[in-house]
Amino acid sequence: MIQVVICDDHAVLRRGIRDTLAEATDIRVIGEAAGYTELRDTLRQAACQVLLLDINMPGRNGLEVLASVRESYPEIKVLMVSMYPEDQYALRCLKAGAHGYANKAGDPLELVRAVRTVHQGRKYLTPEVAQMLADSLAQPTPEVPHEALSEREMQTLQKIASGKRLTDIAEELMLSPKTVSVYRARVLEKLQLSNNAELTVYAIRNSLV
């Protein structure tokens, strides 16, 4: 039996996903959460194998939550679900460690297939995402320095460039200030920058904030 937890801030959408998965005899929804705080408590109590995570939530967005889950529960397969078209977030989610990206407006049977696929340890790709990957391999774009950043490092870069202090960033990401300082140092090194001012200019020039 595939044990699933759903994290989405809309109760109606959670119910719709739960009802869809209930049609599958090999899938059982064992928990729900409306945000990261609830999800963190749920994962402490539930032996979750697959997490369905909405990308658009208030407070910490899905990519930030994905990074936290990957750090604390690396064994959980994360399937990102969203109303956004694949071309906006799919590749970024996969690069950040998600096992798949499914559109909530798509065929319900595809959602069941996606859960089964990621549970087996394979990536779930819609035909649209597969085509995007093929196109990116066929016509690689010039690499820019910030593409080498991890999702955590990118979050740190964006928050510093937005004027937030390390202590504030640590609180938002639920990390220690020392850990955030390490991420900042890695960002500066990878981008070959010297201080926060240069980092902010870089973020603005590359439309990262």
From TrEMBL:
Gene3D superfamilies the record matches: 3.40.50.2300
InterPro entries: CheY-like_superfamily, NreC/VraR/RcsB-like_REC, Sig_transdc_resp-reg_C-effctor, Sig_transdc_resp-reg_receiver, Tscrpt_reg_LuxR_C, WalR-like
Keyword Transcription regulation: yes
Residues modified to 4-aspartylphosphate: D54
Alphabetical list of CDD domains matching this protein: LuxR_C_like (cd06170), REC_NarL-like (cd17535)
Start and end residues of each HTH luxR-type domain: 142-207
The keyword Ribonucleoprotein is assigned to this record: no
Domain Response regulatory: start-end pairs: 3-119
GO molecular function: DNA binding
Gene Ontology biological process: phosphorelay signal transduction system; regulation of DNA-templated transcription
The entry's keywords: DNA-binding, Phosphoprotein, Transcription, Transcription regulation
PANTHER family named in the record: NITRATE_NITRITE RESPONSE REGULATOR PROTEIN NARP, TWO-COMPONENT RESPONSE REGULATOR
Protein name per UniProt: LuxR family transcriptional regulator
Organism this protein belongs to: Comamonas aquatica DA1877
